[in-house]
Amino acid sequence: MRIISTTVIAFRALRRNKLRTILAALGMIIGVGAVIAMVSIGNGAKAQVEAQIASLGQNVISVFPGSMTSGGMRGGWGSASTLSIDDADAIKREVPGALGVSVEVRDRQQVLANGLNWNTQVSGVSPDYLGVRGWPLSDGEFFTDNDVRTTAKVCVIGKTVADQLFNGTDPIGQNIRVRNIPMRVVGILSSKGFNFFGQDQDDVLLVPYTTAMKRVTRRDRINSILIQTQSPDLMERIQADITSLLQQRRQGREPDFTVRNQLELAEAANANNRIMTILLGCIAGISLLVGAIGIMNIMLVSVTERTREIGIRLAVGAHGKDVLLQFLTEAVVLSLVGGTLGILLGVGSSQAVSQLLKWPTQLSIFWMILAVGGSAIVGILSGFYPAMKASQLDPIDALRYE
Q: Among 55, 153, 173, 176, which residue has the fewest nearby CB atoms (within 10 Å)?
């Protein structure tokens, strides 16, 4: 009952000076609101990056051309493609745990259909490509191993290409000319949007890799190899096996390839997000500290103004711990009210940022609970000194205070 009565008295005392109470709570409201909003923005950015990386496929290992040396000439990463179809076949044949393997032969071409033209990425890929990338079709079908063997003139297009060249009509069965070669559209990819690098993934035209190499690019080398593993736990082991296999195929020459897994890409991307979230959290923490200082200042002023009241309470039998509890409760109530309103401000701010600026945000229940608990702790810490000072006043001196 003492706690309840003390809390009621605390609310009455705070209500007597409404403007001062509001100003004291304002620092806590802004501090907690800033923490919630900043963390929501940071979590939203992290979730967006993870979704974009997931759009590259699940449990994917990528092999890229690496640094190379030819005669007296040396080049860095990606300076020349030294990967071949035989490398991809060897990985598929000799590396256990590789569920799907697809090569990529990329080139940009001006393509034409229905009297319209569009510059897009033409990618030669394997039949396993959709499974590796986790990319379903919205219509039609994908090309087969037989299409690869016969260098068939078929293609599967992304939504952007369909919108630009067919203007709402059904592309299935129609032809797209690539380097004046008619390619029959057999499928349409579902929309994936932009990836982590800001590229429109839907702006693509897929053909069998043999068709791309013999009819479009006229190259005998590939740009990359994509490998899907059975689970994330196997990625490091399979990555090491791929590296060892490709090095054996080069018979001891300097490595001219680079093997990267999806987890490394995600970790690199999230490292930047963590730094941003920490910086935003520090800024919000400073606001919270300012709020705590404001509460301490207000409580010190309150102790000074209510010196005679404290003296009367002590004179009629109240103990020092009762006065301590009284002022400590006022500080905690002030912080909790400010923290609760701060959560509402933070939630509202994050939603406003999401709606107005189109930035991704993701609210965290954990941080909301932490904000309420943190505001209570801040109230105890900031109110302890003023409460202790009030509890140690001499009743006679307090009654004489003017």
A: 173
- Report d(CA 107, CA 223) in Å as an integer: 9
Give the separation between CA 59 and CA 302, rounded to whole angstroms: 61
Q: What is the pLDDT of residues 133-180, one digit of tens each?
A: 889 999 999 999 999 999 999 999 999 999 999 988 999 999 999 999
Structure tokens at 70: 């030819």
Residue 28 has a CB neighbour count (10 Å cut-off) of: 31
What's the whole-model pTM score? 0.64
State how far the Cα of 121 lies from the Cα of 89, in Å rounded to an integer: 24
Residue 178, classified by CB atoms within 10 Å of its CB into exposed (0-12), middle (13-18) or buried (19+), is buried
Indicate the DSSP class of residue 233: G
The phi, psi pair for 229, rounded to 5°, reads -100, 170
Q: Is 319 helix (H, G, I), strand (E, B) or coil?
A: coil
Instruction: State yes or no: pLDDT of 397 exceeds 70.
Output: no
Bridge-based pairing of strands 116-125 and 257-261 is: unpaired
- Decide the pairing of beta strands 154-157 and 181-189: parallel
pLDDT digits (tens, 9 = 90+) for 278-312: 776 677 677 777 777 777 777 777 777 767 776 77
Return the domain boundaries, the chain. Answer: 2-52+268-400, 83-255
- Separation in Å, CA 195 to CA 158, 231, 267, 385: 14, 22, 16, 54
Is residue 381 over pLDDT 90?
A: no
Judge whether 311 and 395 are in contact, CB under 8 Å. Answer: yes
Whole-angstrom Cα distance, residue 345 to residue 241? 52
Packed helices 365-391 and 262-305: angle between N→C axes, nearest 10 degrees: 30
Which residues have a Cβ under 8 Å from the Cβ of 192 and sit 6 or more positions away? 55, 135, 158, 201, 202
In whole angstroms, what is the distance from residue 16 CA to residue 330 CA?
A: 12
* Contact between residue 224 and residue 84 where contact means Cβ atoms under 8 Å apart: no
pLDDT above 60: residue 216: yes
DSSP annotation string for 164-187: HHHTTS--TT-EEEETTEEEEEEE
Please give the angle made by the CA atoms of 51, 236 and 98, to the nearest 5 degrees: 80
Q: Name residue 101's beta-bridge partners.
A: 227
